[in-house]
């Protein structure tokens, strides 16, 4: 566990690392509204995006069938080419272009660019996920990120990494955001915001008013044991705790429509170390 004193953290320049999920990307109006709010944040910032359903739609047109096990995409040889084109090309560059229209000086990146996110191919255990990457905070080239950020560029990061052997790897965007936040917390006062379609962590997935305002490990474990939380939110919460327990100043989970409120701590679920 990485610990930073309050004085150390407060003396560092603030940096927002904001992750948007596929449901935001899939809806053009929602994405535009989100990017408008994102561009208005004056502090240094990074946007990490998922892939949404666009890769599946493009794959269907190309005759590339999507394969899943327990909801996780299997990235075979055809699929890694597909997601590289869609995530690193189509989705990433559309977001970058729209941010420029909003006077936000964005630069699109994958993990292979400037070696910013090297990773390792996930080892085969019971399931072979194919070209899927796992990234570690200690492997991240923090100085490259600092070069972009401190020169008033806004990185927009596709969910792709590389293995230092010439292969692109499909990588979970939530995990990328957490690991990147941990690595950059040594240089900045980092606030990580997970944006998706819900108002936060809910005790009732069908009731947007059932937001848990603060969540600590004890409460989280109890809610998991009681099977109160929607299973799909658990990996996101695990990544959030990993970040806040390893030097990240603040982590919030909430609705993309409320980005500016989330940035002020006025909405969503705050993850407590």
From TrEMBL:
GO CC annotations on file: cytoplasm
Annotated keywords: Amino-acid biosynthesis, Arginine biosynthesis, ATP-binding, Cytoplasm, Kinase, Nucleotide-binding, Transferase
Compartmental location: Cytoplasm
GO function term, MF aspect, one: ATP binding
InterPro entries named in the record: AceGlu_kinase-like_sf, AcgluKinase_fam, ArgB, Asp/Glu/Uridylate_kinase
Residues annotated as domain Aspartate/glutamate/uridylate kinase: 15-255
Binding positions (substrate): 51-52, 73, 170
GO annotation (BP), single: L-arginine biosynthetic process via ornithine
Site description Transition state stabilizer, residues in chain: 19, 236
Pathway membership, UniProt: Amino-acid biosynthesis; L-arginine biosynthesis; N(2)-acetyl-L-ornithine from L-glutamate: step 2/4
EC number: 2.7.2.8
Pfam families reported in the protein's UniProt record: AA_kinase
Enzymatic reactions: N-acetyl-L-glutamate + ATP = N-acetyl-L-glutamyl 5-phosphate + ADP
HAMAP family: ArgB (MF_00082)
Record-stated family: Belongs to the acetylglutamate kinase family. ArgB subfamily.
Role of this protein: Catalyzes the ATP-dependent phosphorylation of N-acetyl-L-glutamate.
Name listed for the protein in its UniProt record: Acetylglutamate kinase
């Amino acid at each position: 566990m990485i610990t930073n004193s309050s004085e150390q953290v407060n003396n560092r320049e603030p940096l927002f690392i904001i992750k948007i999920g596929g449901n935001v990307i899939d809806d053009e109006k929602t994405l535009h509204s989100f990017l408008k709010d994102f561009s208005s944040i004056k502090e240094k910032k990074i946007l990490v995006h998922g892939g949404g359903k666009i890769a599946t739609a493009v794959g269907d047109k190309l005759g590339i069938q999507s394969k899943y096990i327990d909801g996780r995409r299997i990235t075979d040889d055809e699929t890694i080419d597909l997601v590289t084109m869609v995530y690193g090309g189509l989705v990433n560059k559309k977001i970058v272009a729209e941010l420029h229209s909003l006077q936000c000086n964005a630069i699109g990146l994958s993990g292979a660019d400037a070696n910013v996110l090297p990773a390792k191919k996930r080892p085969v255990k019971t399931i072979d996920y194919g070209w899927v990457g796992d990234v570690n905070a200690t492997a991240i080239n923090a100085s490259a990120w600092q070069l972009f950020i401190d020169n008033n560029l806004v990185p927009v990061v596709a969910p792709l990494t590389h293995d230092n052997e010439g292969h692109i790897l499909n990588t979970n965007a939530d995990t990328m955001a957490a690991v990147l936040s941990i690595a950059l917390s040594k240089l900045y006062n980092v606030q990580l915001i997970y944006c998706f379609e819900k108002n936060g962590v809910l005790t009732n997935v069908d009731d947007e008013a059932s937001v848990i305002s603060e969540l600590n490990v004890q409460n989280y474990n109890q809610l998991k044991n009681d099977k109160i939380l929607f299973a799909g939110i658990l990996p996101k919460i695990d990544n959030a705790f990993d970040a806040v327990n390893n030097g990240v100043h603040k982590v919030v989970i909430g609705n993309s429509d409320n980005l500016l409120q989330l940035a002020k701590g006025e909405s969503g679920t705050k993850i407590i170390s």
